[in-house]
Amino acid sequence: MGKELKAYAASGCSSCHESTRKEEALAKMRAGMYAMVREGSAWQDVKEGIRSVTETGIDSRFCLLVSDDTHPEALLTRGHLNHVVKRAIQEGVDPVKALQMVTINVAQYFRQTEDLGSISPGKYADILLLQNLEKVEVEGVLVNGRLAAGGGQLKVSIPPYPYPDRVTRSVHLREELYPEDFQIIAPKKAPKEALVRAIVVQEAQAVTEAAGVTLPVRRGLLMVSEGEDTVKLACVERHKGTGTMALGVVKGFGIQKGAVASTIAHDSHNLLILGTSDGDMALAGNTLAREGGGMVVVLDGQILALLKLPIAGLMSDQPVKEVSEKVREVAEGWKVLGCRMESPFMTLSLLSLPVIPKLRLTNRGLVDAENFKFVDLFV
Fold this sequence. Notes:
Elements: H1 2-10, E1 15-16, H2 22-30, E2 34-38, H3 46-49, H4 51-54, E3 63-66, H5 72-77, H6 81-90, H7 95-100, H8 104-109, E4 127-132, E5 137-143, E6 146-150, E7 153-154, H9 165-168, E8 193-200, E9 209-218, E10 221-222, E11 230-236, E12 245-251, E13 259-262, E14 271-275, H10 278-291, E15 294-299, E16 302-308, H11 320-337, H12 344-349, E17 359-362, E18 365-368, E19 373-375
Parallel strand pairs: 1-2, 2-3, 8-12
Antiparallel strand pairs: 4-5, 5-6, 6-7, 8-9, 9-10, 11-12, 11-14, 13-14, 13-15, 15-16, 17-18, 18-19
């Protein structure tokens, strides 16, 4: 906000999709930036963010509607941008203005108005046909003048694409992970218990908190505590096999046993492993290394659920319905471990993002994202 936001805009940053409050989105638009109001599976900010338009009367040309981290199941049941547009209309935006926020406004921002953004001569005939404007019920989709989808079904064939090995073999660990890799050695001055900096997560919140948590020490090793809802977190470099790895602790997931892992870990997308069992954490990490990335849930040495994401460890080449079923299995696996969050993998994926307050874990260590410096796990 204020002078810091003006400096941010002056540096060349022209848009932002991280506004969670009306005041933030409004300030960005008034500074000449484009406010991207988002709605995804975990981050649902339309209700608050769109108030910057509906309650102020500001010109909406600098407002865009976007999705962010949307589950395959949501794409199949609710839709993609059509759902975001509908949410904006439900919050009081004029339907035509809401459609402008995903068409002409976007084309203007990306400087593509010569080809895209409106139905007019000389433009690509990319047209959405709606049964109902306010409900944004899609009848058909034209891409460059040809029917690409209709009645909820794809009308064109998409040929297979042969991905090169450098893309499908993107998880490179220096060596296999072992349970002892996840042992946290306590300071000698803390023979029975130690005060640590814990990352605290909340449902559907990108921002984390930092808390001091006292954990028991056994034989010189830090123990996680189910009573404190505290589990171990590891971030392992997985692109060049450097072997760099850092350990931390997290509160808020509600996990009581087992481990989970993911190669979706914004923005560097290293290997994130969360759990209570060192053995299960090792198995989770090694499994994703073998499969080329994805998401996995492990309990007592057994794989409960696995979603393979072989393309850069981030994407699947399988049909969305199949991916959705695997995501559902992974979500059920989280519940078996004790987590009751709606989208826990979304929350997990942000724990290594060192540009959002307050505390994050990268492969280089624990980061204080407010003061831009590394901090020690032990207080």
